[in-house]
Design a protein that fits this description.
Shape: globular
Number of helices: 12
CATH class of the largest domain: Mainly Alpha
Number of domains: 2
Strand content: under 5%
Length: 307
């Protein structure tokens, strides 16, 4: 197992290197620059700024300098937030984004899993049709449509919840963004759980458990559910990526000071280092999360072993 984990971590290095390389050259060759303001700067000022941020060097020299910098876990200064380095911005924003993403993932697993099990136990009945219709609707409606609807309904018209901001992590401030981010994943988890649960309930070992006279609770929870959650565990990797990309929209709409919101501001203001740093951090999180999912799958399924 240790050899497998180390192998996966070493294999991630060329992946991250490739992501950094492609992202670096794509953003640098795009038109415009971090100091292209509506009112042009004086030539001497522009020359000094380019020298300070090494923009006066060739593209390859800038690339090598950036590789050297991130190898030391230094993402450099921010062009737009000039009082902060990228590391300082991440220290402030990353915990918020992680909290938002994990809360949404937990909500999706609990609610989606419960709905999927309920639909499977009532297959081809009104409850099953209703849950699957709602799940289909949840998959098709994007976050940027759900967010204004929930904001108007729960925040403006009913006045139950704050409509924006993180509020130092206050519980009420978290509800709208977490629910909005989680809803599409709730729908996907519900559909996956229903399908795998129906298959598990028809399996031989579940039929044997019923033949021995076990209660429905033990049959469902102990015998059927363990096999039914394996497809859901496999989906956790793509779900994490979806939550990370979805958080960009959610943090921007609700004014949450997370890494996604900083990424949008960096992209709009041509902040090279902020955009690049966000890409690297998100890539690392996706790679690590997929590794954790593979290890978790091996723990749940005795047929899978990483030797």
């Amino acid at each position: 197992m240790t050899r497998y984990v180390l192998g996966r971590l070493f294999a991630a290095i060329p992946t991250i290197f490739l992501i950094v390389t492609i992202s670096f050259f794509l953003i640098r060759i795009a038109p415009g620059g971090p100091f292209d303001l509506e009112r042009p700067l004086e030539a001497k000022v522009m020359e000094n700024l380019n020298k300070i941020y090494h923009l006066d060097k060739s593209l390859w020299e800038q690339y090598l300098l950036y590789l050297s910098s991130i190898a030391q876990l230094d993402f450099g200064p921010s062009f737009y937030f000039r009082d902060f380095s990228i590391n300082e911005l991440f220290a402030r924003s990353l915990p918020i984004s992680i909290q938002l993403g994990l809360s949404a993932l937990a909500l999706a697993l609990v609610v989606g899993g419960a709905l999927g099990v309920a639909a499977a136990l009532r297959q081809n009945k009104p409850a099953d049709y209703s849950i699957m219709a709602a799940a289909t609707l949840g998959v098709t409606i994007p976050n940027f449509v759900i967010a204004p609807i929930l904001t108007l309904l729960l925040g403006v018209w009913l006045g139950w919840l704050p409509v924006g901001g993180w509020g130092d992590g206050a519980f009420l401030n978290k509800i709208l963004p977490v629910v909005t981010l989680a809803l599409p994943q709730v729908a996907v988890v519900a559909r996956l759980t229903r399908g795998s649960m129906i298959e598990a309930l028809r399996s031989n070992h579940v039929r044997t458990a019923r033949a021995y006279g076990l209660t429905s609770y033990l049959v469902v929870v102990v015998h059927a559910l363990r096999g039914a959650i394996l497809p859901v565990v496999s989906y956790l990797g793509p779900a994490a990526a979806a939550l990370l990309t979805g958080s960009v929209v959610i943090e921007t709409i609700f004014g949450i000071p997370g890494i996604g919101r900083y990424f949008v501001q960096g992209a709009l203001n041509r902040d090279y280092t902020l955009v690049m740093g966000t890409v690297v951090v998100v890539a690392c999180f996706v790679i690590i999360f997929n590794l954790v999912v593979d290890l978790l799958y091996a723990l749940l399924d005795p047929r899978v072993r990483y030797d």
